[in-house]
């Protein structure tokens, strides 16, 4: 029997078992699982010799000492790849990895259907005042149906900020409901935006012309606090704001003000500055806010799909392939040189 020569390590945070099962089928790959709490020495012993670190993407669940930082990379001299457990990679210092010749991969698209469905569910619930009706029925009697009367979404305009894997699926679902779809995305040419089912637009046009504005862009230096008080002010009075992207892209205090003033009719928030948000967060006190716990992409199907994609990508990478979801493609020449030196 072949002795494993390639090492993959992950933490003991929950992961769909399909990941471990796929890695186990490779005779030349071993899998190590380290404890995130209680035994740092044992954890570092497991991590120190790894070739691939499959890191949790949940920034508020993974202790920060296990983030893929420059310090962690330096303590893992044979590390070739950091694999995020999701589409996002908030727990990975990509520049530090790139500088060290370490490839970074994610699982973009693996949970796109689930996130898209969640987005439409928020739009429908908020537009039809389903939340308000449900909550009032649980605490009072005697109100009329007309007091919780909502609106159809057919014929309205949805504006997408980002039209990648998730945004493309949201556009498809929205068109099935009869919405017009606008989209802005600096990484996608106008003709490709049109091919994906949306009318190309600027961010300002999306904000000013849409009845629903939904975020589907990555969190990075260019998008941090992008949707601020000025952006909310540009949105149509009575519009609804949705985000299943990442906390920090919108300013929470500015959103609170836009809702309290009545400028916005409602908001669907799946991502937060702090996850979960504190119970006294002002958005949680509003009946016109649909609040979820960064679980738009957390379904049984999505979790299995993401874990399977991650394992397959790691197996292919360790066999010498170039991963299809490489976050830092500029690292590739340095990565190849290190791979030859480390693995032969």
From TrEMBL:
Stored InterPro entries: D-2-hydroxyacid_DH (IPR050857), D-isomer_2_OHA_DH_cat_dom (IPR006139), D-isomer_DH_CS (IPR029753), D-isomer_DH_NAD-bd (IPR006140), NAD(P)-bd_dom_sf (IPR036291)
Domain D-isomer specific 2-hydroxyacid dehydrogenase NAD-binding: 120-296
Keywords: NAD, Oxidoreductase
PROSITE patterns: D_2_HYDROXYACID_DH_2
Highest rank taxon of the organism: Bacteria
Annotated ranges, domain D-isomer specific 2-hydroxyacid dehydrogenase catalytic: 69-328
Annotated transmembrane regions: none
SUPFAM superfamilies reported in the protein's UniProt record: Formate/glycerate dehydrogenase catalytic domain-like (SSF52283), NAD(P)-binding Rossmann-fold domains (SSF51735)
Family of this protein: Belongs to the D-isomer specific 2-hydroxyacid dehydrogenase family.
PANTHER family the record matches: D-ISOMER SPECIFIC 2-HYDROXYACID DEHYDROGENASE FAMILY PROTEIN (AFU_ORTHOLOGUE AFUA_6G10090)
UniProt name for this protein: Hydroxyacid dehydrogenase
Organism: Ramlibacter alkalitolerans
């Amino acid at each position: 029997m072949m002795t494993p020569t390639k090492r993959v390590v992950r933490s003991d945070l929950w992961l769909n078992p399909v990941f471990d099962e796929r890695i186990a089928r490779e005779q030349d790959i071993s899998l190590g699982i380290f404890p995130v709490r209680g035994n740092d020495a044992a954890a570092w012993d497991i991590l120190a010799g790894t070739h691939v670190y499959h890191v949790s993407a949940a920034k508020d669940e993974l202790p920060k000492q296990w983030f893929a930082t420059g310090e962690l990379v330096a303590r893992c001299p044979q590390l070739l790849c950091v694999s995020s457990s999701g589409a996002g990679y908030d727990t990975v210092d990509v520049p530090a990895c790139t500088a060290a010749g370490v490839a970074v991969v994610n699982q973009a698209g693996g949970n796109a259907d689930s996130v898209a469905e969640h987005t439409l569910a928020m739009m429908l619930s908020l537009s039809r005042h389903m939340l308000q009706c449900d909550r009032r029925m649980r605490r009072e009697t005697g109100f009329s149906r007309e007091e919780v009367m909502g609106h159809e979404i057919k014929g309205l305009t949805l504006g997408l900020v980002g039209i990648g894997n998730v945004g493309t699926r949201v556009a498809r679902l929205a068109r099935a409901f009869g919405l017009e779809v606008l989209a802005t995305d600096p990484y996608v040419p106008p003709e490709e935006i049109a091919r994906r089912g949306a009318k190309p637009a600027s961010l300002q046009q999306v904000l000013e012309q849409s009845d629903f504005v939904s975020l589907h862009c990555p969190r990075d230096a260019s998008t941090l606090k992008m949707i601020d008080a000025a952006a909310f002010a540009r949105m149509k009075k009575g519009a609804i704001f949705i985000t299943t992207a990442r906390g920090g892209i919108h300013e929470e205090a500015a959103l609170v003000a836009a809702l309290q003033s009545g400028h916005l009719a409602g908001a669907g928030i799946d991502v937060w500055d702090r996850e979960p948000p504190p119970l006294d967060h002002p958005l949680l006190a509003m009946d016109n806010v649909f609040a979820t716990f960064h679980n738009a992409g957390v379904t049984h199907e999505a979790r299995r799909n993401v874990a399977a994609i991650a394992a397959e990508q790691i197996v292919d990478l360790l066999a010498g392939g170039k991963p299809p979801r490489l976050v830092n493609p500029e690292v590739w020449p340095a990565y190849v040189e290190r791979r030859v030196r480390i693995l032969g």
